[in-house]
Specification:
Helices cover 74% and strands 2% of the residues. It is mainly alpha-helical. The longest helix has 25 residues. It holds the Pfam family U3_assoc_6.
């Protein structure tokens, strides 16, 4: 054990010598760093090693690196060698590698390593760590989402991002989180292509067939297909469907696709209260009553009320829908500044 600890400490010498030479740490501070690292190395070499020992060592190194950066900036040191600038980060990587090798089943440890790689912008290492993590934990949708986003956003590789998401869905077909993030990614891809086309000033193609394919693509045809597959994979989940609408609203000119989701709700889930809550709220969401006339607001309120009343005639959950209805009524009275202790619901007064 002592030989291994001594060898690991010797590997740190170039870094420590450079930190002392540049004046970032004093000789006494270097001795203290060596003493602390020696103690932590002995704990990491013992059997059985504990997860907390790795995390304690990592936390110490991260705090030490923050102090190094502050002092380097304050002293105006610009000539430090790589050993001084990246030695501590290299040691953190080494500690994380040893930790995840020892505790492969600890997903939280993998997530901490992934977070460190992202913050330190070590993209090459991040890609490798994500691949290892999902290979060991294919049933964790969050890891697939991280890997897909990394390839799509950081690597600017939509094809690989799509492939990763699809592979994750094959392993986790009922994951609502994975379906929604894949759906969002496809929408972002279309939006990005739209902006690129606008920026380049590309005109319509003379090839009619090619132009038709382009029109389908830019009208969110692929996200629509993802939605249809998601509904089949995760049936009987109204809130899941509503989440697709919320994501659609983040993108311009998606109203037609939103209508597809509402049609699906009405067709397949009209017996549920949450369905009618979503259908009614669609007319009220994002409405700024301060910019509308009283007549316009009243007209919208009538549409919403009519939707709730239609739902009450067909739902098998009338009590739940009444609660949604009354909650909306309170919001209306509060917005209008009227007495919320008396709510008009058709001919009935709730006092």
């Amino acid at each position: 054990m002592a030989e291994v600890v001594h060898r690991n400490l010797e590997l740190m010498l170039p870094e420590l010598e450079e930190l002392e030479r540049s004046g970032i740490f004093s000789p006494q501070e270097i001795k203290e760093i060596v003493r602390r690292r020696r103690g932590m190395e002995y704990k990491l070499q013992r059997r059985p090693v504990r997860r907390e020992d790795f995390l304690r060592a990592i936390t110490y190194e991260l705090n030490l690196d923050r102090l190094r950066k502050v002092r380097k900036k304050r002293l105006g040191v610009t000539s430090a060698r790589r050993d001084a600038d990246y030695g501590i980060q290299d040691r953190v990587h080494s500690l994380f590698k040893r930790a995840v090798k020892r505790f492969k089943a600890d997903v939280r440890l993998w997530l901490q390593y992934i977070d460190f790689c992202r913050k330190s912008r070590h993209h090459v290492t991040l890609g490798k760590i994500l691949a290892r993590a999902i290979a060991l934990h294919p049933n964790k949708p969050g890891l697939w989402v991280m890997a897909g986003k990394f390839q799509f956003e950081d690597q600017n590789d939509p094809s690989s991002g799509r492939s990763t998401m699809q592979q994750g869905l094959r392993s986790n077909p009922s994951s609502t989180h994975l379906w929604l993030e894949y759906f969002r990614m496809e929408l972002m891809h279309v939006d990005k292509m739209k902006k690129r086309r606008l920026m380049l000033g590309l005109e319509k193609s003379e090839d009619e067939e090619l132009e038709k394919l382009g029109a389908e693509f830019f009208s969110y045809e692929i996200p629509s297909i993802v939605f249809q597959q998601a509904v089949k994979a995760v049936p009987n989940n109204v809130q899941f469907l509503v989440s697709f609408i919320d994501i659609y609203r983040l993108f311009e000119r998606s109203e037609q696709r939103q209508e597809e989701v509402y049609s699906c709700l009405r067709r397949d889930y009209s017996h549920l209260a949450d369905c009618w809550e979503a259908l009614a709220r669609r007319h009220w969401t994002n409405i700024d009553t301060t910019t509308l006339t009283g007549t316009e607001v009243s007209s919208i309120e009538e549409v919403v009320e009519g939707c709730y009343r239609e739902g009450l005639g067909v739902t098998v959950q009338p009590s739940s829908l009444w609660r949604h209805y009354l909650k909306w009524c309170r919001e209306v009275t509060e917005n209008e500044g009227t007495d919320s202790t008396q709510l008009r619901v058709g001919p009935i007064y709730f006092v």
